[in-house]
Each structure stands twice: as C-alpha cells, then as structure tokens.
Amino acid sequence: MTDASITTQADGGEASFGDYIALLKPRVMSLVVFTALVGLVAAPMPVHPYIAFCAILFIAIGGGASGALNMWYDSDIDAVMKRTRGRPIPSGRVGRDEALALGLALSGFSCVMLALAANVFSGLFLAFTIFFYAVVYTMWLKRWTPQNIVIGGAAGAFPPMIGWAVATGGVSLESVLMFLLVFMWTPPHFWALALFMRSDYDDAGVPMLTVTHGRPATRRHILAYTFLLAAVAFATGLTSIGGPIYMAVALVLNVLFLAGAFRIWRRDEVMAEADNYKVERRFFRLSLIYTFLHFAAILVEALLKPYGLGGW
Question: Where are the transmembrane segments (predicted)?
Fold first, then answer.
C-alpha cells in the first residue's frame, strides 16, 4: 500500500448511508440496470412483471457488489488518483474490511435470489460476471496489461445477456450482439478519457494504453475500435431486436462517433494541449450517451412490436 493510501485511511469521519451507496458505484449500476432491462424486454419470451422487477433488482445488487469489491481492492490506487481519492475508502469514511464484507454478502445474495426468482442459468451468469469484474479485471488485468479495458470491458457488457437469459434461459445471436455493443464501446470511451486524464493513470501506475504505448497509438486504437463498434451497431439493427427506429438512431450516432474518432486520430499532442483536449472531451461526452441511446432504441422497438409498429 502506498504512503498516500495509508494517509487517507486515517479517520475521515463517520460513514453515512450515502457512503455505502457510493461503494456500489450507482452511476455504473444505472447502465447495468438499463441494459439488463432492455435485454429482458427485447427477448422473445414474455416475463411476468413481478419476476422481471425482482430479476432487475437482483442484477442491480450484483452490479453494486462488483463495485464494492472493486473499490475494496483498488483503494490504494484510488488514493493516488485525483478523480477517485474522494471515494469512501481512500477518504477514510469506510474501512476496507467493511467494503469487502458488503461486496461478498451482496454477491452471494444477488446470485442466489436471481437463480430462485428467474432461473439457475441467469443466477450463474450473474455470479460469473461478478467474478470476472472483481477478479479477472480488477485483481489481474487492470494492473498487468494495457488491454485491461478491452478484455475487462466484458464484465460491463454481460448485463443485457443476463436480462435476455432471465427471459429465455439461454443465449442467442441477439444477446451476443447486445454484449458486443457495450464491449466494443468500452475501449474508445475509456481511452478518450485517458487522453486528457493521463497524469492520474501515470501516478497510480495503471498500464493504460496512453502510458504503455503512447498517445499516438491510443488515437489509432480509438479510430479502429470505433469502426468495429459501428459494424456491430448496424449488425444489431439487422436482427429481430432491430428496426427502422433503431437503424435511424444508429446511423446518426455512428456517423457522429466516427467523425469524432477521425478528428482525434488526426490530432497530435501540440494541437490537443492548445485547446485543452476539446475534441477528446467532446468525443468522451458523446460516448456517455452513445450506449444509452442505442439501447433505448432497442427498447422502443420492443415496446412497439406488439402493436405492429416495431421491428422489421
């Protein structure tokens, strides 16, 4: 543990209920909940509203458990990075042991309850997702390889597949494409952030692509992954969960996203520093709504389908 993290473990005041909620990473959880809901609603098998509500609740709790375990293990580097040093553990408001206990308890509870409420496959899928995020990504990939975001992004991409599994008890092409939509979005989203937050990752020793391969390579990777993401987005629109509304949304968003990635690729550090990374920041802001709007379009198609208005 670094000196910085030891210092911040000093008494930071009594923890509030909000501090324990913050351990669950509610902003990340909101994307987990929404994409899982879309996966459940878009699935071809109807689900009783009460079972659907319980399933989404337990998926949300599982996502929160992952966040608590991540904060427990990463408390040392959180204390070094400017954007994370105010989190409950490095600020000293919540102890590491408390975060670990909360994460483990919520993990077990959410997986067992999802299996009982929906089906065993979805419960096991949720357990695997928590393991992948807390162990494979947080404990292994994040500090070991610049591909941490690429491979580790799978953990955040599993929820729509879990939602689909709640309804169907299995996996299909549509659920895999929803997974890929989030999976391929994750690298350019975080690499754009890393371009204008590099010092944080440098200070914490996290091997982000900007640190290990340089910024020109990161810009090339953003462009390449954005092209792959666009291909996945349009492929999704050609399946049973797509439709004209989805395709229209995908067309507009991907044209904008590709244009932003191309501008990032053309710039060098002199140009970026001159305007305080204006292009990179704009691309990052667009990425914040990119996934939400794609999944919102899938949801609209699914909701309109019973009336003969959604889908192809």
Answer: 28-44, 50-73, 124-141, 148-170, 176-196, 222-239, 245-265, 286-304
